[in-house]
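Budget justification aside, the reviewers requested a transparent look at the raw inputs and outputs of the sequence design task funded under Objective 1. We therefore reproduce one unedited record. The lines immediately below are the C-alpha cells for a 258-residue chain.
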C-alpha cells in the first residue's frame, strides 16, 4: 500500500476513535460533590446576597439534598435540592418557600468549588432575580481542639480543650455534632458535654453538664478548611459559685488540632 494511502487510512482511524471517545461529557466529576456546602448568590441588579448552606448527596450523576436559605431575603427556609453533574457542568434546582432557584455552573477539577449563574422567577419572596453564585465545600468538623475564651463581663481570658465529631452526611440542611470540653481556669465552666449542629460554615454548640443541665451556648463561623471557628458564647454555671451568680459572655476562638 502506498505511503500516502496508509497515511490517509491512519487519519480516518484516528478521527473515528476521537468521535467514539467523545469528550467525557456524560461522566461524573473526578471527585464527588457530596458533602457540606456554603453558597452565596448575588443579585446582578441590587447586589443583595443570599446565603445557602447544607448537604448534598451524589449517586452517579444525580445530586440531591437540602439547603438552608438565609441572608438578605424575605422568605428564609429550608428547600429540597436536586440536580445533575456531567463533568464539569453542574445544575441544581432548589425548591424553597415561595420560590424556586435554578443554578448552573462548573465544578473545579477536585470538586471543592462550584461557580456559575442563577435565576429566581418572580414569586412571593420578591421579583425575578438573576446573578452569580459560588459554592465552597466545607471540610468536616472533627478532631481534638483547643479554645480561647475571652470574657466580655470580666475581661478574663481562659483556655479550654476537648474533642468534637461531626455525624455522617444524610443530605439534610444540617447534621449533628457531639463532643466534650474541659476548662480548668474558667470561672463559670469546668467541664461540659457538647451537642450541636453545623450547616455550611455556621456552627451552633450547646454546653451541658454530665447530668444534662444546660450550661451555655456558642455560635460561630468556621473556616471552610475546618480548622478554626470564631464566635460568641453565653455561659451560666449550675449551680452558681458561692457569693453570687456566675453569668458570663464573650468571644471564643476554637482551633481544631491537626
Amino acid at each position: 500500500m502506498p505511503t500516502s494511502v496508509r497515511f490517509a487510512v491512519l487519519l480516518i482511524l484516528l478521527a473515528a476513535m476521537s468521535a467514539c471517545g467523545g469528550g467525557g461529557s456524560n461522566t461524573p466529576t473526578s471527585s464527588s460533590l457530596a458533602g457540606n456546602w456554603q453558597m452565596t448568590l448575588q443579585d446582578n441588579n441590587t447586589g443583595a446576597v443570599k446565603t445557602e448552606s447544607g448537604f448534598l448527596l451524589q449517586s452517579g450523576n444525580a445530586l440531591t439534598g437540602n439547603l438552608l436559605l438565609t441572608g438578605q431575603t424575605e422568605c428564609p427556609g429550608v428547600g429540597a435540592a436536586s440536580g445533575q453533574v456531567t463533568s464539569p457542568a453542574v445544575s441544581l434546582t432548589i425548591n424553597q418557600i415561595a420560590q424556586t432557584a435554578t443554578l448552573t455552573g462548573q465544578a473545579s477539577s477536585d470538586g471543592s468549588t462550584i461557580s456559575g449563574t442563577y435565576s429566581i422567577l418572580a414569586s412571593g419572596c420578591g421579583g425575578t432575580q438573576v446573578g452569580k453564585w459560588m459554592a465552597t465545600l466545607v471540610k468536616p468538623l472533627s478532631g481534638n481542639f483547643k479554645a480561647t475564651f475571652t470574657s466580655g463581663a470580666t475581661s478574663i481570658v481562659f483556655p479550654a480543650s476537648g474533642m468534637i465529631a461531626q455525624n455522617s452526611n444524610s443530605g439534610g440542611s444540617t447534621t449533628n455534632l457531639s463532643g466534650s470540653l474541659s476548662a480548668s481556669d474558667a470561672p463559670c465552666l469546668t467541664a461540659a458535654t457538647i451537642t450541636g449542629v453545623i450547616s455550611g460554615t455556621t456552627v451552633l454548640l450547646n454546653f451541658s453538664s454530665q447530668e444534662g443541665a444546660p450550661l451555655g451556648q456558642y455560635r460561630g463561623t468556621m473556616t471552610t478548611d475546618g480548622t478554626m471557628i470564631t464566635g460568641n458564647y453565653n455561659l451560666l454555671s449550675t449551680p452558681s459559685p458561692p457569693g453570687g451568680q456566675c453569668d458570663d459572655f464573650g468571644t471564643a476562638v476554637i482551633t481544631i488540632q491537626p
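The chain has two domains: 35-138, 143-256. The first strand starts at residue 35 and ends at 43. Computational costs for records of this kind are itemized in the attached budget.
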